[in-house]
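quick one before i forget lol
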Amino acid sequence: MKRRYRELLLTVLLFICVELFANNVIVGTPIIASVNTIDDYAMVEFDLSWENSFRDDINWDAVWVFVKYQPTGGSWSHASVHTTDGNHTIPSGYTCSVGETDGSGMGVFIYRDANGSGNTNLSDVAVRWQYGADGLADNATFLIKVFAIEMVNVPEGAYSLGSGGDESGHFFKHDGTGSPDMATTYTVTSDDAIVVGTAADNLWGASTEGSNKIGPAGTLSAAFPKAYKGFYCMKYEMSQGQYADFLNCVTTTQDGNLYPNAYNWKRNTIGGSAGIRSADVPDRACNYITWMDGCSYADWAGLRPMTEFEFEKACRGSVGPVTGEYAWGNTNIAEVTYVFTNDGLANSAVTNTVAGPTGNFFCGVTNTIPPDDHTFDGPIRCGIFASSTSSRTEAGATYYGIMEMCGNLWERTVSIANIEGRAFSGTHGDGVISTNGYATNSDWPGYISGEVTEAQGANFRGGSFSSVTLTVEHRVSSRRYSDSNYLNRNYSDGIRLVRTVE
């Protein structure tokens, strides 16, 4: 019989557990609460909290929790968690589901088990780590970190592509004529293959050439994520704190390829040196993110890129589209000069948001600050317009409660404008990136010779703080940059990731 070696297992402080006035999640100090050397597992225990948690009759928000460990003298690796929900300990009022990839548990989703809303504060959450499956001996010594990402459930069901408006390159249902009615939206009713073409009832686009093109006629396979199936979407754009935490789990070589190197440019605050990166303003959305950076983070975190279909469904939901709509479901924009307080702090806020059926969102050079004021010439805090009392439009939220899908930073998504994007089958990251720091999923756009080092098949949706024309870039159905292989770092580019509901 194996002996118990609990005293030889080490833990490390992940986050200093302080109170933050923000929507973002807080993970307390993780410990190894117990060890079973018969079955080679350990219970990783920690406290977990996040603000503005909700569950209603439509959907809920959740936290994606995963564990990383570093054996003495080794590199950081992804921990395999048990694939049975009941083997994890979740406090009363909440539950979990295990996300699985190829039979190996990458992490768990934790969320409310009944309708309700408010701040969540959970003590003694425990995730079962199968350390034996990761090749660790009972007497191994290691460091451990627990990560958590706020996400929102987008449930399975039909939805519309296109709004019936005049958005650049928008989707519509072809009527088979030489002069089709481009105001007819296309309804996705299943995960079955979709024909892209000019015959009656085909999916087609308002442009056939240039940066907003639909791409060639053909078929989207059943494997391409069409958003009919349920998925979890990050509630916020990736923050600067999240990206800095990621960089602190990679090698010096990987850091050299992944570090934005934009400290104090356009409100990016990630600095330090390899292995000890930090963000001065961790709750601010992270700009200067390339397609390759975003895919690397997704692979490392067990997530995947979002398709442009999923972008539209995450915004408008299952209800009928509104012509020319923004993420909050109408065409009303808060064209005011926002007044910010405590900028750079966790309680950064806007004091003069617009009430009523008008969407608050951040577009820094057109409608929310004077054009000659560069104080806010860069992204702002994730979820800054949301509160416990704000409506969907006041928060600038999508149908499902996802924040900043329009404005702040561009969303990078998988496009169907070319064959590289259409080859995407929605595989998830396995927690391991290449020695150079890149994602290794062969179906992801930009995959070449074992790594995602290009961006062919990726596009831009939702506009940013620097977008010039509201009607062209920020609308949900706008595909102005549907065909883009842009590789360079840019101050207006971020990322938001998803995971399919298994």
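fyi The first strand starts at residue 26 and ends at 27.
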